[in-house]
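Hi team,

As requested, here is the filled-out complex form for the zinc ion run. I kept the field names the same as last time so the parser does not choke. Let me know if anything looks off before we queue the next batch.

— J.
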Amino acid sequence: MAKKTSTPIATSEPSKLKKKVAPKAKSEPKQDVKKGEEKEQGMVQETVVLEEKMKREAPDEKLEYSNEQKLVALYNLQQIDSQVDKIRIIRGELPLEVQDLEDEIAGLETRVDNYIQETVQLEKSVLEKKNAIKESQTLIKRYEEQQMNVRNNREYDSLSKEIEFQNLEIQLSEKRIKEFQGTLEVKKQEIERLQNVLEERRGDLEIKKGELDDIIAETEKEENELILSSEKNQEFIEERLLAAYTRIRKNARNGLAVVQIERDACGGCFNKIPPQHQLDIRMHKKIIVCEYCGRILVDDGIVNYVK
Ligand SMILES: [Zn+2]
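And here is what came back:
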């Protein structure tokens, strides 16, 4: 008979059927939305009011946060998330720096290898010319010996011409050897120079790699702390608003979903904000988005509060 394997062998807990404590009810409707207030905003474009139904102002109630509190939380959340973005950008660039260095080193190594091969070839050429000189010298020696036993002047002159020719060959070879050795000297100096550069770059690379490891470890710690802090901030913002924030952030350049009014303009797209909207934004009673770019707008009051 097979026993159920999932049954615990022994446990101090009598039962796992303990009821989970239900999370405290977050949004019990306490009062109805005041419809009359909403109507007053006729001049304001409906699209700019992101949370029309979040009209309830209940600062003393623990369960509902006021729009002002939400704006503070949103702006704070944006600051934290932007920091996370920054960290990720920095961390993304560092491996590229290491990669650049590795590429540079590989390039230098190839150049050194090519130069070494060239010097090998040059040394071979020098050797060939030296052998040619030896050959010519052997020939000259033989011709000179033959000159001792010539039967006539014509033969003697002919051998003299051969000797002269071989002497010219030797001179030519010597000239070539000098040229090769000159080039060889330049190449060897260049190899030495490149090898010094290489050594330096390899040192740089080692340092950079160490830095990269440190920064990755460090930023990961910082990033995790920021993410934790971001999550804590999100508790102040209801899901719907948070979803809007995330959506705007995803679509917005530089990941900015919450921006400050700067010189009467949206801090995200720099379009002018009508005075009536600015007034509404300063009131902190509604969550207002830019009618051009959709970013959530806050005034310096919220910004200074967060700071
Ligand atoms: Zn805008």
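Two things worth flagging: The CA atoms of residues 134 and 286 lie 101 Å apart. Residues 67-148 form the longest helix (82 residues).

Thanks,
J.
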